[in-house]
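Before relying on records like the one below, remember that each one covers exactly one chain. Contacts with other chains, cofactors or solvent are not represented anywhere in the record.
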Amino acid sequence: MNKEIKHLLLISVTLFLIFIFIFNVYTYHAANFVPQASKASQIINRTRLRSPNINRPSEKWTYPNVNNSHIELIALKKPQQVLVINSNSHRVIYIVHAQINLPAQKSPLHILHARGQQIYHINGSRQAVSKNWLGISNGNYIETPVTDMNSHRVPHNLKKIPKVENTIQVSHADAKWLQALPENTPLLVKEGY
């Protein structure tokens, strides 16, 4: 290669690296973050997210072990996500796509010992069936999206699922994993970051 092409290639690579650096700095400072976890852990887990799907986990990686960890959950209504945070290391260890049908709370709710395979919701003449539920204080639940509404099957699209009041609806795989959460795990519901 002649000298001019080498020089042009060097300038191109340098400009590309500068662009990547500026983009990362901008993303790091412009994005919204929860103060309970480090910014880096939140950025890393956002890059591992899949598109919402009722039959798949939210992230591409395997589920972390939550049995012996100090875990807290933050449900964000605006991006429709539940952040699973290790409170000892202040790191987001998993992000769950969710349909959050709870009002924002000033104080955290808590995960109860109550959990099961199937739950029925009856509201007037409306009847709904969900699976893999996990009890939350004040009569709330984390569960899969409704599978049957008034004895009719419901389409499996996480963005178009019927809302059930007092619930956080997550995919089937995420709901099964969340059932392993220890009792008294705090859950804070916020409007947004």
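The mean pLDDT is 87.
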